[in-house]
Specification:
- The protein is built from ten helices and 15 strands.
- The chain is α/β, with parallel strands linked by helices.
- It folds into two domains: 151 residues, Medium-chain alcohol dehydrogenases, catalytic domain (Quinone Oxidoreductase, Chain A, domain 1, Alpha-Beta Complex); 140 residues, Rossmann fold.
- Strands 3, 4, 5, 6, 7, 14 and 15 form a seven-stranded mixed sheet that branches.
- α8 links the parallel β12 and β13.
- The mean pLDDT is 97.
- The chain binds NADP nicotinamide-adenine-dinucleotide phosphate.
Length: 320
Amino acid sequence: MKAIQVHKFGGSEVMKLENISELVPGKNQIKIEVKAIGVNPVDTYIRAGIYPIKPDLPYSPGKDASGIITEIGSEVKLKKIGDRVYTCGCISGSYAEELICDENQAFILPENCSFSTGAALGVPYSTAFIALNIRAQAAAGETVLIHGASGAVGLAAIQIAKSHGLRVIGTAGTEQGLKLLWDQGVIAALNHNQDNYLNSINDLTAGAGVDVVLEMLANVNLDNDLKLLAANGRVVIIGSRGTIEIDPRDTMGKNASILGMSLFNTQAEQLQQIHATIKTGLINGRYRPVINSELPLADAPKAHDLVMQNGVNGKIILIP
Ligand code: NAP
């Protein structure tokens, strides 16, 4: 079967489509015929060798995919051959025609969801759910600023926040991105590439500030985020690509909290609970991933270059 292989860490060109030997699932594992693959920024950090966790070489990249179960291990209990599933994490790498994952890394894909939709769920929806509901403990009626709302995690966060009764302010860096945010039902869409774009937050919150910030680029925005918070406000750091200076005093008078998060800290059982809740949103149509483009698996290098660009607005999917 064909899979993208990485033999050395480096630029996107180190990914090659190659023939590799057939995969055999272990006793708690399932084998999936992959129909669609979700490309995430973390896949590029790992490929470049700049992520703290480095796989042994050679490896196949990718955590998110969707497809049909073709084989199950002897101790698999809740999944069967023929099930349509999507993954959040996998053992063999998702950039392939087939993958192996633990049974509890796969979730049933509702009938009303396409395989591309399934491939867009794992990392983005898990991350948005954990940031909003578990780390920030956001409550209905609160106001959330999604700083970087036009990307895969940000769009998932808008949909989850709205379905929980939050008021959502989002930022994007292009006119198309801003339109997308309005279409998703935010109360305000602000352009993070314009000067003074945060000035209207005061009016939008009647002077109180925002209760929660979900931050996709903390190394640029954290200092400003702290100044925008309401009393007892929380900033959840989802993405950061460098360092920043802040004034710790900005947290003191407001009892503010800065909360880090990594999806990879989530236990398998908790991930199952999270996706049981996400399933409801998929079935009732409130959660609908925005797909930017679908590319053939051989174009994985192009997909990695694209996912690191600004103005992409939604998810990049690879099709094997
Ligand atoms: P993505 O689809 O590439 O989206 C990136 C987002 O960042 C876009 O909305 C982009 O907006 C926005 N952005 C660009 N410049 C910005 C600025 N100055 N201020 C605020 N936002 C800005 O990536 P993603 O999949 O949504 O992931 C977002 C970040 O979270 C990435 O850094 C990723 O590595 C990280 N992440 C972390 C976890 C975790 O467990 N902590 C999990 C998943 C993802 P425009 O393109 O419109 O400018």
